[in-house]
Amino acid sequence: MSYIKSIKLVNFQSHKNTEISLDEGLTVILGPTDQGKSAIIRALKWVLYNEPRGTDFITVGCKYCRVTLEMSNGTVIIRERDGNKNRYILRKDGQEQILKVLETVSPLK
Fold first, then answer.
1. pTM score of the predicted model
2. What residues does each domain of the chain span?
3. Contact 11, 66 (CB under 8 A)
4. CB atoms inside a 10 Å sphere around CB 98
5. Separation CA 27–CA 4 (nearest Å)
6. Hey, what CATH topology would domain 4-100 get?
7. Which one of 20, 36, 47, 102 has the fewest CB atoms closer than 10 angstroms to its CB?
8. Which residues pair with 20 in a beta bridge?
């Protein structure tokens, strides 16, 4: 079974450009109040479950956001949102697939 090897958040809430490496097993996110811990979980939910919807999570003053998940099996899942685009980019086995998002359904489900 694969696991999330890294998470990269660009212009997602308080994260302008954050990259987090993860190991297999339990991961704990610690830090002071209001420093972006919940935003990391929200970013994961956005990529995997299409929640939250809308654009309120794009960093104030920015035009787009992107969250990238690198899986331990080499698959890369990128979710992008701006005023016009709302899509996934899936990279696996040297192939790239672009999927447009419907507001109600995640193409990963």
1. 0.88
2. 4-100
3. yes
4. 11
5. 10
6. Rossmann fold (3.40.50)
7. 102
8. 7
Residues 78 and 58: their CA atoms lie apart, in Å, by: 15
Phi first, then psi, for residue 102 (nearest 5°) are: -85, 145
pLDDT digits (tens, 9 = 90+) for 1-58: 899 999 999 999 999 999 999 999 888 888 888 889 999 999 999 999 988 888 899 9
CB count within 10 Å of CB 22 equals 14
Indicate the DSSP class of residue 83. S
Write out the two tokens for 46.
């956005």
Give the C-alpha separation, 38 to 81, whole Å: 19
Angle, CA 19 vertex, CA 78 and CA 10 arms, to 5°: 55
Strands 76-82 and 4-12: unpaired
Q: For 34, which DSSP code?
A: T
C-alpha 56/C-alpha 39 separation (Å) is: 12
The answer to whether 7 and 44 are in contact (CB under 8 A) is: yes
